[in-house]
Structures are given as C-alpha cells and as structure tokens.
Amino acid sequence: MTASTRWGEESLRIPRSEPLPADPTGQRLCEIFGHYPWNFIRADLPDDATVKAAWTTVNAYPLRPRVLWNHWQDANQLIGVRFTHDTRYALLDLDAGGDYCTTDGVAQIRAALETIGITRTLLVRSSWSGGLHLYIPFAELVNTFNLAVALKECLKAQGFRLQAGQLEIFPNVKAYGVETFIQYMGHRLPLQPGSGSCLLDDALNPIGDSLARFFWLWDGAAGHQDMDALRHAMKIGRDNHRKKPKRRSHPVESWRQDLDLEITEGWTGYGQTNHLLKTIACYGRVFERLDGQALIDYTLRIALTRPGYEEYCRHQPDIERKVTAWVRAVEHYYWPMGTAPTRDTSHPQGELVLFNQLQAENAQNRIRAAYAELDRTDTLPEQITARAKAIAQAAKVSQQTLYKHLGLWHPEHQEGVIALPASFLALTEARSEAIPKSLEPLENKELHPLEKTMKGGALCAGDLGPDKNSFTPERGVRGDESRFPQEAEPAPYDPDLHEQIQRQIRSLGWSVDVIRQFIADRLGGKRWFDLTEDERFLLLYHLRGLDSLEAREPSDVTY
C-alpha cells in the first residue's frame, strides 16, 4: 500500500534511468538502501574500534547508486542513508549495554512484532561496539510514516522502553514540517568491510559477513511477512496517532517524553553540552533510578552515543569530569520516581561547588594562556586599561572575571586575592584614608578645624575679655582670617550616588585591592578620597560599562 508522495520528496528521488553498479550484489544494495539519495551520512572508520565514529550529514549532492556501492566497499569509511516517503524495510536499534541487547531481549521483541504481522527478521551486529540491528524486510513498498507509527504503538503497548541507549526505531515518528521538510533519522548500512558488522544467529553468534547471504536471508524473510495484518496495524496506528491529544497525558509522563526527545536529538549546535548532560543525568536519576557511579556511567554512555557529539561538543577532552560534576549536582535536586523527595534545601550549593571550581580554573587557565600568547607575540599593551581589554578578549572572559585574578596579568600585583568585602566603601584602611564610620551628610558643611592641628589653644569664654560681645565669627583667634593647617574639604557627599556605586561594586564581588586598582587605572592613579563629585560619577560610568565591554561569564548551573 503506497500513497502519493508529499511535497518536496518526489523531486529528490534518483531518476529510474540512473545507472546501477555492474555487480549484481551492488545493484541489490542500491535498490534497497539507495531509494533516497539526499542528506546521507558518512564517517571515517576510527583506527580504534572502541572509539565512536564521528558521523556527519552530506547535503551538498545526492548519493548516486554507483557512488553508494563504491563507498560501501571502502574499508576506510562508513556510510549511511535515510528513509523517504515509502520503504521496503525497517530496523530496530538495540544499543550495546541496554536491557534488550541480549538473546532474551531479541526474542521478546520478535514475539511482540508477530502481533502486527512481522514474522521474520534479520539480526545483525551493527559494529565492533556490540550493538544490534534487527532488520525487518518487506516484499513491497509500504508508507514510511504509517510503518513508524505502527512499530511504535506495538512496542510501547507491550512495555518496551523506546529511548536512546535502549531501543530505537528506524524509521522514527518524525514531526510534520509545515515550512521545512524534516528528514527521517539516518542509519548506517549493514556489513561494511572493516566495520565489525556481521550476521548473527539466534544465540548472537557470528555467522559471516557476506552481503550476498544477507540478501538471500532478506528475500526469505520478506516473503513470510503477513502484509494484511501489517496494513491493518498501520491503519490503526495512524488513526490513533491522529486522534491522540497532544498534551493530555500525566505531567510526569509528558516530562519524561520531553527529556527523551531532547536526548534522542542530541547535539545540533555548539554550546549545548551543559544542557544535554543535565538532561541525561536527570533522566537517569528520575526514571532509571540510578545514583553514584552507576548514574555517571549511564550519563557518559548515553552522551557519547548521541548524534552530533563528535561534531559539536567542545568538551570531549574533559567530558568525564563534566559528567561527574553534573551527576553530583542532579543528585541533590532530583530523586528516583516513586520515592520520597530527598532534596536538601539547607545546603543549596551542594556539589555545585565542584563544578564552579572547575569553571573558575578554566577561566584562570585561559587568562594565563592569553597573557602568555600576547607576551610572546609582543602584542601585550603597556597601558593597564588596554592590556585588560586585550587579555579579556583573547581569553574570552569578562572584565569582572579578569579583575578577580590580578595576579595573573597585572604588573603591580602578585598572585592571590583577599576575601570579598561586604561593602568596599564601608571598609577602613590602615592609613589616613580611612572612611568614617558614618557616611551621613553633615548638617553644616562649613570647615571644621581639627583641634590637634590648631596653632593656638581652644577658645574659652573667659578668653574673650571683659566685653564678651566684642567677639564676632569674622574674627579669628590669632589674626583676622581663619586659616588652619588642616585637610582639604572632602568632595560633596551625594547619598544617592554613593548607594549606586556601592550597589554596583557589590554586584561585581571584587576585593578591596581590585577596586582600588580599578579606580587608579581609570582615574589617573587617584584614590577614593581624592575623587571629586564629577570623578565619582565617572567611576560609576566605568563600573556600569563593564558589561558592555565583554559579556558576563555564563551561569554554571541553572534550575
């Protein structure tokens, strides 16, 4: 049973006149797996059989039949294809280490498939990793989407877990693209030379890797399928899919489906590693009921097998450390489904401290590397402001982060930073520039002489002479002018400006030494007490301008 081809697909098929390979086995390979030539997948065969292949999608040109056969014979590369609107086969992917990658698991799946008319399958080891591909051949073309829905409904109804790392269906039940044509997921071709793929018997023992024998078994299996029962199951499955409410399931089940969808899609771009590791660890913790090392192993195994990992994950050298940090974090915020909540709100940081330390170490290492590279190439600016900007851009850190580690780049500082103050402007210094305990504005802003610096003694009532009324404020104690060797009048106090500067400094989390150096670099070597009111406005401008110079460091963990 076939239906009319949807938009965008008919034009993508290879013309029937496309020349096939001369080899009869190659012709059969192209007839079955070369039905849809676009957006095929390929990977170089890894030298180490334990390393996962780095698959990429090729969408610049179609995979012509003779090229497909040539690529399949190349022992240095792996090749894979996608489904189109109709198909002559399906396959089930049983991941190595999963619950169903066993003789008993295969037997249970085969028994479930018989309920919808699939009575014969071909069992193939997919690669050296030990995963299994269970091929389902048909003697005629069937609708791809209806087949995907029928397989999903069949296996879910009998309790199989359709998820990454366990059991996946090809073709998958893909979303409908309104404006963009959405591709089915691609799969590798069977029995490629050097790939570790081979035929297996029911006891999972290898029985050869002959492609000719594979197609002989294929024809025998295809001829024994109950197509009437399968077509009936496909119609019921499609009707159920159309009538199914989009969001009427239990919230927990909806959450599980959402997590599984994100994990199945894997990486589709850069900057997704933290989100995906948290999602995988959360799924393993809540729905797989794992913890400790078992959860670490699960998260690592699933992450390494997701699409796009090799292409887009930039944390591959330290992936185990990042997985461990995320697992420790997830264990403090989630608990196995059906058990009592175990979240400890009295220690909100928990194991996140480890992750934050890793992030801080990475930032420091980037600052050191940037400083060394600028110094090596004689492009390290002498002026502090220009130097800070150059290092921040090269290290890809914010100005806030850079000023937290003055000892790594500032010529006047050594390694180390003192503890963060509660408020910079509320601290006292050891020298004469101490800040008064009270910063409230004085009621009288006239000059007030300091007693210890007066040249004469304090004026007393008895010193005014017999005519006490002869003393006037205009007359000094010694001389006609009130001149004293005292400190200059401080800058006018603006409580609103003071509070804004305080708030900005608190948000940066800087130490006293860092703030003092920042003021000196921006305002000609001056200190806080030397600043005029205009200069303090300028200081606030510089503090607020840090965000525009360089983006802040991303949050380590968000919930």
Total helical elements: 18
Give the proportion of residues in helices. 25-40%
What is the CATH topology classification name of the largest domain?
A: DNA primase, PRIM domain
Shape: elongated
Q: What about the largest sheet?
A: 5 strands, antiparallel
Domain count: 4
Judged by helices, strands and strand pairing, the structural class is alpha+beta
Region (Disordered): 1-20, 461-494
Biased composition (Basic and acidic residues): 7-16, 475-486
Structure, explained:
This protein is of the alpha+beta class and 559 residues long. The chain folds into 4 domains: 10-243, DNA primase, PRIM domain (Alpha-Beta Complex); 251-350, no CATH class; 356-408, no CATH class; 424-428 and 491-549, no CATH class. It has 18 helices and 9 strands. It has a 5-stranded antiparallel beta sheet with strand order 7-4-6-5-9. Strands 2-1-3-8 form a 4-stranded antiparallel beta sheet, with helices on one face. A hairpin with a 6-residue loop joins strand 5 and strand 6. Helix 7 (251-265) crosses helix 8 (273-286) and helix 12 packs across helix 13 (384-395). Residues 7-16, 475-486 have a biased composition (Basic and acidic residues). Residues 1-20, 461-494 are annotated as: Disordered.
